[in-house]
Amino acid sequence: MTRILVTNDDGVQAEGIRELVRALASLPEVEVVVVAPDREQSASGHSLTLQRPLRMHEVADGWYAVDGTPTDAVNLAIHWLLKERLPDLVISGINNGLNLGADVTYSGTVSATFEACLLGLPSVAFSQEAGPGASFPRAAEFARRFVATLLEGPLDRRMLLNVNLPARELAGVEIARLGRRVYRQVVVEKEDPRGRRYFWIAGTPEWSRDAGTDHDALERGLASVTPLHLDLTDYPALEGLGELARRLARQLGG
Ligand code: MN
């Protein structure tokens, strides 16, 4: 029996997680346990709640809601609920909206898989483009076949895959690297009914048109599959920092 932990950042009530679980539960020899935030936690990033207690409630058979972030949910699942028999795989999603390029660092959906990775478990994040043509049942069927394919072979504990699906009918699948967003984020300044100023972070992302990226794959109607890891070290810079290291040693000793 393969045990799959499912979580998300849109909350336990979201259509994306409901369709995903329905699809995964139909796989043979698969047991699905859901531990997910009790409400939307999109763009919560890899945030961990340490300043207040967390509550977890079983909302249906095998479904648990946590009043915290996706990272909190994965922690409670791994270190408490499922600690006697850890999941073989952690799946996050299906997110309502893409998680491309550096947006993975804001994403609660992808951060749940970061946490799984840190805890030594293989994981996959699924996100679907929002907009005309988007269908969670269709995306869930894709996820079911994707996971079935993964389970045909042994799972690498370090595996962390970020998968994005176009809203329109799928034209294929492509392995891709993270794309680069050309930042046009804007801050809108307005006034509230009491005359006080407030701000809203808004804007439509624009992407640099690089071949081989997740964004490029989505533009062509393909699902992108991007392997990620959490070693943020800039290795080429490590080589190039010799001169700075010498100056630091001269100034600071060592
Ligand atoms: Mn979300």
Structural class: alpha/beta
CATH topology: Stationary-phase Survival Protein Sure Homolog, Chain: A
Summed up, the domain count is: 1
Question: What fraction, in percent, of the residue positions are helical?
Answer: 25-40%
Bound molecules: manganese (II) ion
Q: What is the CATH architecture annotation?
A: 3-Layer(aba) Sandwich
Biggest beta-sheet profile? 9 strands, mixed
Strand coverage percent: 25-35%
Shape: globular
The total strand number stands at 13
Topology:
Elements: E1 2-7, H1 15-25, E2 30-37, E3 56-60, E4 63-66, H2 70-81, E5 89-96, H3 108-118, E6 123-128, H4 136-150, E7 160-165, E8 173-175, E9 181-182, E10 186-191, E11 197-202, E12 206-207, H5 214-219, E13 223-227, H6 235-240, H7 242-252
Parallel strand pairs: 1-2, 1-5, 2-4, 5-6, 6-7, 8-13
Antiparallel strand pairs: 3-4, 7-13, 9-12, 10-11
This protein binds manganese (II) ion.
Q: How would you describe the overall organization of this protein?
A:
The protein has 254 residues and is of the alpha/beta class. Helix 4 links the parallel strand 6 (123-128) and strand 7. Helix 1 packs across helix 4 and helix 2 (70-81) runs parallel beside helix 3 (108-118). The protein is 28% helix and 26% strand. The protein is globular and about 60 Å long. The strands form 3 sheets. It has a 9-stranded mixed β-sheet, with helices on both faces. It contains 7 helices and 13 strands. It has one domain (2-179, 209-253): Stationary-phase Survival Protein Sure Homolog, Chain: A (3-Layer(aba) Sandwich), CATH 3.40.1210. The longest helix has 15 residues, at 136-150. The protein binds manganese (II) ion. Residues 9-10, 42, 95-96, 108-109 line the site of manganese (II) ion (MN).
